[in-house]
Specification:
By secondary structure, the chain is of the alpha/beta class. The protein contains 10 helices and 12 strands.
Amino acid sequence: MSQIDNYAVFGSPIEHSKSPRIHTLFAEQTQQMMDYSAQLVSAEQFSLVVKDFFAKGGRGLNCTVPLKELAWEYAELKTERAELAKAANTLALQDDGRILGDNTDGIGLVTDLQNNHRISLKKKRILILGAGGASRGIILPILEQMPLSMTIANRTVAKALTLADEFSHKAKINACGYDDLKGQSFDLILNATSASLTDDLPPLAAGLLAEQGSCYDLAYANKATAFVRWGVEQQASKSLDGLGMLVEQAAEAFYLWRGVRPDTLPVIQMLEAERSM
């Protein structure tokens, strides 16, 4: 009988995680012998629990809030996108026993935008709202698509300037406060703030979205977030949330672990149907 490989997602809170469901569907679809579970792990417990997981034969982990920075520190090897993000949402055991840290959030976002929604990033004016960890994780994969410009807006301007400077060797990124956005226009606005968790909005002026522009909230919920609703009010060509990004970043982690790319579309369609019921 083939050995069943063990994977898990660690986080706190963790009870509402869709990751076990998504990876179980991927495994069934691609006929992979693996088990994937969710485990409540605090920041204080993290290093010991991760060490124990891999010591007992675990093959890979996903890490969510508040553990991504700790996972980045734990990893002995890092991909470039994880290195620049200073956070890892995926850990993978390598053949030599070392642990590789990757950040699949940004490529998950880019794949959802371009493959699933046909929103091209090339030569587009892109605005990222927020200068925290969520923004840091998506910048490099977006820059690799050669946008015309990228702007980071944040309540604390100094934080946006610092983040832009960290990627200055890759591209020139504009940084400003929300008030400084007035009079500017963008083809794609990405909400990477935590405002959606409280059904709130960053202080956005009307007129920021270009004609035929799109809005995308990295967060997702069973109903439209405040930012998705704002996008509709601004007559966005598409105003989307991050459910597709969730599935696509999971698919990238799955590929890193198993060397097989699952078909994400039926999984996204299933989750979309369930939340609309």
